Structures are given as structure tokens and as C-alpha cells.
Amino acid sequence: MSVVWSCNEWDQLEEVIVGNPLRARFPTADRSTQLAEFPDRSLEEIPQGSFPQQIIEETDEDLNTFVAVLEDLGITVKRPETWPHEAKFSTIHWESEGYYNYCPRDIMLVIGDQIIETPNVMRSRAQESFSYRAMMVDYLRWPGFDLPRQRYG
After folding, report:
1. What is the pLDDT of residues 76-90, one digit of tens each?
2. Does some domain include residue 135?
3. 130-141 pLDDT per residue, tens
4. What is the pLDDT of residue 4?
5. Is 105 inside any structural domain?
6. Section 15-41 average pLDDT
7. Residue 39 domain-assigned?
8. How many Å apart are CA 74 and CA 68, to the nearest integer?
9. Which domain holds residue 77?
10. Phi and psi angles of residue 110, each rounded to the nearest 5 degrees, phi first
């Protein structure tokens, strides 16, 4: 039996994944970012680089407070690894840097006992799910199934 199970929105919450704002940055200014996030701006007007440190710190503080409330209610909270979003990655058609791993619901969908990794329209989010890999591998573990533990990133 899988430890993952979600089939409605009204059962008591037992476990949740809360994102991580650390090392967040503005997405690479390309057509995918423009269409998804900044349709009213030219590529040159799209902000670049890391988010202001104050924003990251305040967001982290807010999320940690939220996690504490959830845990006080007996809910298990999991968090993704901090990811080097400033690292470049590419295909043969484009190059990008990362964005953030703040919104797990944008890139993963739970239906029943399945976790489905969903693609994102923004190139900067193409590797975002990597910060959740160790967690996803842990979800694969169940009695009688011996999967070696490995950390990614």
C-alpha cells in the first residue's frame, strides 16, 4: 500500500509539501517567461537575477511559521532541498537558469496513490522538480522494496 493517497479535498490533511524560497531568482528573460509571467513587458524589461534578500528572508520566515502551525496540528510537513537556481541548464534549442521551488503544486499532481510530475510552460522551471527528487524516492519506499538512498543535486 502506498503512503501517498489523495482522492478528495475534505478529508483531514495528514501530510503536505511546503515549498522553499531559498536561492529564488527571477526567471530567465525568454519568450516562455514573457508569455507566462510578464505579457505586458518586453524581454528587456523583465527583472533579472536573484530576488531581493529581504523578500527571500521574509518569505522563509512566513513559511516556517506556517509549517509550525501545521506541525502543531499533527500534520507531517516535508520541504524540498535548496536548489542552485543560478546554475545554467540547456537543451539544443535554448539555455536557461532556474526560478524557485516555492510552489510544489505547480509541478506535481497527486491523484489517488500516484504523484504525477507535470511539465511547466516556463523554461526556467524545467528542472525545478529535481529539488524534490530525494523526497519522491522516499515515497517509493515501502516494506519489502529495497531502494538505495541517493541525494540529488
Report:
1. 999 999 999 999 999
2. yes
3. 999 999 888 877
4. 83
5. yes
6. 96
7. yes
8. 10
9. 15-140
10. -105, 125
Residue 31 included in any domain = yes
Total domains in the chain come to: 1
What's the mean pLDDT in 125-130?
Answer: 93
Give tens-digit pLDDT for 73-126. Answer: 999 999 999 999 999 999 999 999 999 999 999 999 999 888 999 989 999 999
Radius of gyration of the chain (CA): 17
In sequence order, what DSSP letters do the residues of 66-90 get, joined into one string? HHHHHHHTT-EEE-PPP--TTSEEE
pLDDT band at 152 (very low <50, low <70, confident <90, very high): very low
CB neighbours of 54 closer than 8 A, spacing ≥ 6?
none
Backbone φ/ψ region at 151: left (φ over 0), alpha (ψ -120 to 50), beta = beta
Residue type at position 26? F
96, 123 Cβ separation under 8 angstroms: yes
DSSP string, 14-58: -EEE--B-TT-BPPP-SHHHHHHH-TTS-GGGS--SBPPHHHHHH
Q: Show Cβ contacts of residue 67 under 8 Å, excluding neighbours closer than 6 positions.
A: 18, 77, 79
Cα(102)–Cα(20) distance, rounded to whole angstroms? 5
